Amino acid sequence: MLRFIHISDSHIEAGGSTNNSSVPEGGLQCDKACKNARELRSVIDAINVKISEGLSVDFLAHTGDICNSDDKKNDNGSSFRSAISIMDSCEIEKVYVNGNHDNLSYVTNVRDREFSRVGNKMEFEKYLTPELTGSYSARFDNYRILVLDARPQRVDFSAEVFSKNTSISSCSSPEPDGDQPADPAGYLLPTELNRIEELLDECKSQVVVFMHYPPVKLDCSWVDRNMCVSNGEQLHKIFAAHADKISGVFFGHVHHGIQAIVDNVLYVSSGAVSMQFDTSAHLQKHEISLDSGAKFSLVAIDKQRVIVKQYSIGCFETD
Ligand SMILES: [Fe+2]
Ligand SMILES: [Fe+2]
User: Fold this and answer.
1) Total structural domains in the chain?
2) How far apart are the CA of 9 and the centre of ligand 1, in A?
3) Residue 111 domain flag
4) In this predicted model, what pLDDT tens digit does every residue of 184-224 receive, in sequence order?
5) Ligand 1 centroid to 180 CA: how many Å?
6) Computed over its alpha carbons, how large is the radius of gyration of the chain?
């Protein structure tokens, strides 16, 4: 049985400093200095307690918005280092996904560090496209791990490496809306969709997918309008055609724990580490949910079943 922790949307933000002088390299004493660090610390501590009590876990997957580094152009990586410093205190392997508030180069650096760590069982296989290094496949025991970076901004960075007839114009990121980031909707290139299909065609093992944006609509007005992969229907069709191989698609971004089965494909989001949003069907814009507490999930998978246990923990000030 494959067993992993799913967390998402920790949104660590170095406490408003305009430089990283208050955030030393390596270990941090930053729980008070960094927004949401206390919540992430509480989640990691809770996981560590379970592991110390005997829980066997294969890895931890963070499905993006690790920090707010890309919102703060003068962040210099300080919020990301804070987040990684806290997560490093949990010694199991990690899978990191690029979120719309993250900086891809930071995420790929720590991803590569995980792959090179002695004793880690996750084996990098290949990038979906060599030009866009946020999406890749890996192997873990008999499972194939597929990590998809659907952030549209990375397409802008890399558009010149694609042929002229590769259209990126269908990516319809909404304009910034209040405190919404500029790219709340995801997008996958046709090239990437083709590679996903090829990979699933030839794959003989069960596949676990990690991504930041939901590919399917989730019966909530503001989520369905703004937050999904804008060409997610195409991605879902590929998943649905290979539903027997896909154990689940695990995502974040919506700051709410949601489970959906669409055409026999299981989609599961983790509630956020930072704050929860209300995803009631009628809501036209995101609202902070009264459901407080930092969230994480424990997922167990084998050929017959997928079991998701969701946890909510209070966060307490410590001196
Ligand atoms: Fe988020
Ligand atoms: Fe997000």
Assistant:
1) 1
2) 4
3) yes
4) 899 999 999 999 999 999 999 999 999 999 999 999 999 99
5) 10
6) 18
